Every structure is written in C-alpha cells, then in structure tokens.
Amino acid sequence: MIWLLRYEKGRLVEFMKRKIWTYAPEKTPKAKPPELVKISVENKANELVNTVLKPAYIRPLPKNPQYNYIIDIYTKWHRSYFYFYAINCCPFPNAISPSFDTGFARMEYTGKNQFSLSYMRHTGQWWEIYSELSLDECLVKIRDEEIFVK
C-alpha cells in the first residue's frame, strides 16, 4: 500500500491510500497424517502417558494446597498436530475456574512418518526445538527432557 500526501503551506491537505498489486506466493499445504499414523501415534502416546507421565507427575491431593497442581494428563489430535495436555486444579476459593488445561508438548506431522517437536513457552507460544524425528524419538524426548513437563 502506498500513501500519497499533499501539503499546502505546511499543512496536510489531502492524503490517499493507493493499493498496488504484489506477488504473494502460495502457501505449501501441510502434510495430512494418514489414519494408520494417527492410530499408532495415539496408542503409543497414551501408553507413555499412562505408564510414565501420570505416575511421575500426578500426585495425591496435598493437605494444604498453596499452588495449582496437575490432576490429569491426556492427548488429542487437531489437524496435523498431536498435543499433550495437563489438567491443572486451582484449589483456591477465589479461582476463576476449578481447573484449566495447558498444553506442554506438540508433535507436528511433517510427512513420511516424521514429526517436529515443540514445547509451550512461558509466553504462550509453541517453540519448535526438534524437527524430522520419528515417533519413537519424539516420545523419548518427551519422557526424558524436563522442558516438556515441569
């Protein structure tokens, strides 16, 4: 967009916006995961959640809770992304809601059984730290690295 301004005696008299054509390349479509990949990812991820993540991060209800605490961990697909979520409980009487969900890991299907792995930053944005990993490599990273579940 181009702005055309005209001044007379130091004062702005008129201005116009002029639209011009520019080149806008097409976005490349994201790889859509096949149903078999979705099912295998979901099965392996739920196994990780039930055998490793839930026993490690879900603790019994504290006697005198002072902070939010994790009460459940689950997974879900959305488009070409596979998310890991934690449900946090707010034990305070002035809490806006009794619980809230936070995503802590995201796997993006990039094609050919490859995934990009991201974590949720404190700013609320997903930050990709690994690309072109297999499913098993992604699950090992989620299990072993502290950046995903704190």
Short overview:
Helices cover 22% and strands 41% of the residues. With 150 residues, the protein is α+β, with helices and mostly antiparallel strands.
Strand order of the largest sheet: 3-4-5-6-7
Instruction: From the alpha carbons, calculate the radius of gyration and give it in angstroms.
Output: 24 Å
Span between termini: 46 Å
- Stretches where pLDDT is under 50 for at least 5 consecutive residues are none
User: What letter string, H or E per element, gives the SSE order?
Assistant: EEHEEEEEH
Total of domains: 1
Provide the helix percentage: 10-25%
Major sheet characteristics? 5 strands, antiparallel
**Overall 3D form:** flat
Strand content: 35-45%
Q: What's the number of extended β-strand segments?
A: 7
Q: What is the tally of helical segments?
A: 2
Estimated structural class: alpha+beta
Mean pLDDT across residues? 87
Blueprint (SSEs and pairs):
Elements: E1 2-8, E2 11-18, H1 35-57, E3 69-78, E4 81-89, E5 99-111, E6 114-120, E7 126-133, H2 135-144
Antiparallel strand pairs: 1-2, 3-4, 4-5, 5-6, 6-7
Helix pairs in contact: 1-2
